[in-house]
Here is the input.
Amino acid sequence: MQRFDWIDEAQRLSRAQQPFALVTVLRTQPPSSAKAGDKAVVTADGRIHGWIGGGCAQPTVIKTVRDALADGQPRNIRISPATETTMQQLNDVLEFGMACHSGGTLELFIEPMVPAAQLTIIGDSAVAKALAQLAPRVGLQVTVIAQDTTATAFPDASRVLTSDDPASLAALVDTPTDVVVATQGRRDLQGLKAALALNTHAVWFVASAKKATVLKESLRSAGAAPDAIDAIIAPAGVPIGAQTPAEIALSVLTNVVATQRSRLDSKSSRLQAPPTPTQTTAAPTTKASGSLISAMEQALNRSCCGD
Here is the structure.
């Protein structure tokens, strides 16, 4: 293992849109094999590229990296000798006591490098174009799927796919993504089929409740999974009285960001407060965002965003 092989690994993971944490040694008290300024790239599965000291501290670092990647927040941790393993919060530093033979103290800064959240927009309507312009401004990485469109029609998108054929999309968009179907009368059913072919967190459909109901029945008749159909949120967007394409896009984007933040907060809360022996953990659900989506569906039936 080389002290500087973290540089190449960080570049590789960044290009592949894979999360990792950059761990930096801030200070040490001897005996310690690490020195201030040493760095390593650490992934959630425990791979370490670089140098941050010997094996005694690594399990604690890996666990803290997983927590940091889950909620996107950096950590400052101190690992020091103790007769037994302990943990306490001291101001902004997490103090870990470790029963290591070597002695020594390490203080580390753990900085999560999480890829931008994904948003896939299906359709080439005016709302789709406005949404593709707005979403990158709040840090979302946008993929557009629209039959026979061009990349020049969506200059702010990271990627533009010119076919909405569901059979080919699953391989092209394999990263979990939130999806907005904004076809608005052009290939609506095909757009919904394309959305259901993706690895989705949640699916919004820019359409009236009446139109969405008709198209959902068409999806059922075509054999689509009932749970996936029921999870489609329509009308899309929060009720802000939107009328123009840009206003509707803002309404929808507000909904997307709120859902993503709630999802992240929920994941962070689960990590910070694991179930006790008297608690049970709910079984995973295939329906996007579960009860959160159900609550939103009720609120969004009052949305401004119709056909």
